[in-house]
């Protein structure tokens, strides 16, 4: 397949996910209207849906039925959206913008944003359990993996370390732990959920985890690079915020060239991890896209 | 059994739960220390553990092994603790005290409190899935019920309605919906989880839901009454906060006597719902205790 076909495939995955998320958050009239609007505002219409694409592609490679993988993709995107809402709150990163539009609390107020985040996290689990296509065993496995990946020794753990290290220099080891948890945990979870929606070979499971871990780290490193080099307009948020917040990043530790080289290295290793598998074209393309993205 | 034996039984349930929660939140040294401390601060050493007692007693009545019921009791208490942490935050009720000690954000700061709440909600699901005594089917059922009960059409829904109706008069219908969701949903969930930890008869399942719903509403009405009549010292929080926040309560809608009568009525109906069952003594006592509590 040519690169523009992979781009089309990524967009197709995003479209599928968007449609499913839209359906799962269509509710009738009720007294909770405002928080439902806030949930839809933050969940829908956004981003490349990289996590959903991971679920769907690993699902496809493991022979998963699309609806089964799609339910899990929605759950992962809900957890991701909840984490962004809470991350943007004034007591956290205090970000007024997200993807070029006002962040959830700027639009709906802090209390509604807090509850919208709580609601999305809960909804992720509800989505798994109310699935009509996943087996009981798959629901159990998926929800257990998702809980762990998003918990205090997963994504939340990453946010905690991020907060605690604010304003102080941390070393490469601590930074790698932070990135592995904050971004890596949910990406690894996405790859794993895709696999268990089908019938994965053990070596494929293992490869999926290496691939996702390497891609996750590369994603964070390019974030660090874009914060220095990116264009505000494309990013949809101000650049230079890391320096302003005195954050330790790959760029502050290794310099711009060092960071770029590290990102390249991670991506090479990610591609290496899936090289044995047939039909790995999309995964290779996604890895390269992470490296070369400008937003 | 005599009443003081039931009191002992409630305390024994609380002790069992406390010990299990303590074990489930004992972690080694790690970089996330602060949020783990915040979680333990808010989760441990507190309250009557009414929700856990519901799980354990309904579990006992349905022949559940204690360790199975206990895992579910812990999950429910974790969800309860998370809801209190987020409820106390400045953007919500802005409460400085909880059970007579500084609330989580007062002690650990807002961002840590936010993440501690997020972490507890996630940990509740992790607790279910990592259980060594629950079957896959039980885990699935329990987690699905818990997700629904704590979600936007359960507990969070109640908080949303609570926020939206602040400062404006609402009618009895809206107030009952609010209470049914904010407190009732998790109590019903607790009773249900106790049942499914064992092998419940269908009529018992149904009775448990009526019992928990009625007790939940009575609990809220006595909260309204205690906010007017209670002693600050016993409550561990200032009285009169409802009036100050211009909240509609059973007392503002029906007057003090009307509210007391409604609470009595709910408790009579709660007791009625379980009167056919043998060994209902503890449930009858708990219902009465809800009515006569002074904190």
UniProtKB/TrEMBL annotation, chains A, B:
* Gene3D superfamilies cross-referenced by the UniProt entry: Farnesyl Diphosphate Synthase (1.10.600.10)
The EC number(s) given in the record are 2.5.1.10
Which GO terms fall under biological process for this protein? terpenoid biosynthetic process
Q: Which UniProt keywords apply?
A: Coiled coil, Isoprene biosynthesis, Magnesium, Metal-binding, Transferase
Keyword Transferase set for record:
yes
- Annotated coiled-coil segments of the chain: 253-280
Cofactor(s) needed, names only, are: Mg(2+)
Q: Please give the Pfam families that the UniProt record associates with this protein.
A: polyprenyl_synt
* Catalytic function, reaction form: isopentenyl diphosphate + (2E)-geranyl diphosphate = (2E,6E)-farnesyl diphosphate + diphosphate
Which cellular component, as a GO term, is one annotated location? cytoplasm
**Descriptive protein name:** Farnesyl diphosphate synthase
């Amino acid at each position: 397949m040519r690169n523009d076909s992979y781009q089309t495939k990524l967009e197709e995955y995003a479209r599928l996910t968007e449609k499913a998320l839209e359906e799962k958050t269509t509710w009738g009239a009720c007294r909770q209207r405002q928080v439902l609007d806030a949930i839809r505002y933050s969940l829908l219409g956004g981003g490349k849906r990289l996590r959903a694409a991971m679920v769907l592609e690993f699902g496809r490679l493991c022979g998963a039925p699309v609806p089964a993988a799609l339910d899990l993709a929605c759950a992962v995107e809900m957890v991701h959206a909840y984490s962004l809402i809470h991350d943007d709150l004034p007591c956290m990163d205090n970000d007024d913008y997200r993807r070029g539009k006002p962040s959830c609390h700027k639009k709906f107020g802090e209390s509604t944003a807090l509850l919208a985040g709580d609601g999305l996290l809960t909804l992720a689990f509800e989505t798994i359990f109310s699935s009509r296509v996943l087996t009981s065993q798959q629901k159990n496995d998926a929800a257990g993996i998702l809980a762990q990946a998003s918990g205090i020794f997963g994504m939340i753990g990453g946010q905690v370390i991020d907060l605690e290290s604010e304003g102080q220099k941390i070393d490469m080891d601590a930074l790698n732990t932070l990135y592995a948890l904050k971004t890596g945990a949910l990406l690894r979870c996405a790859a794993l959920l895709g696999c268990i929606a089908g019938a994965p070979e053990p070596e494929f499971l293992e490869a999926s985890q290496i691939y996702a871990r390497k891609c996750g780290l590369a994603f964070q490193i390019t974030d660090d690079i874009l914060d220095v080099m990116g264009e505000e307009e494309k990013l949809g948020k101000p650049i230079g915020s890391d320096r302003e917040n005195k954050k330790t990043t790959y760029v502050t530790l290794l310099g711009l060239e060092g960071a770029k080289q590290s990102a390249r290295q991670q991506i090479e290793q990610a591609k290496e991890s899936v090289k044995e598998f047939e039909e790995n074209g999309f995964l290779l393309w996604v890895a390269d896209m992470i490296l070369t993205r400008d937003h």
